[in-house]
Amino acid sequence: MTARSAESALIAQLRFIFRMLTGNNLSSGKSPMRMFTLLLAAMALAPTAASAAPSTDQRGEARLAQALKGRVAGKPVDCINLRGINSTEIIDGTAILYRSGSRLYVNRPEGGSPLRRDDVLVTKLSDSRLCSIDTVRLLDSSTRFQRGFVSLGKFIPYTKPRD
Q: Looking at the whole model, is its pTM more than 0.85?
């Protein structure tokens, strides 16, 4: 079952239960026991449908693996020079990917808010390097309100092997 079909099935079930609880499609005389039973059924069904969908972390790990395909991990470093960074990409719930020429740096933040692909990263730096001791504020891309922060970990460089 795909994530979308699991979500659709859950929504249909919850709509049915809501109609039952609010009296739509019920004969007159709702019994409290029937309402309680239906509420328990709704609570039991919710985790089943949700577990059928892959988690954000699983999808993020798959996207990260695709981005790193054909590359070899190097020795983790504490800092990277931001002047050489061409682009930054957030991998949902997993990592921040920094591109520097043909080299990729992967940072898996240690703690803080979960990463979302559409977050805006805001970093206050004391020099031109981004280091594992730095924190990055996360802004919601549509409202520009701060929604959290992450503490950076070590940066793992990935390069394509030479033939």
A: no
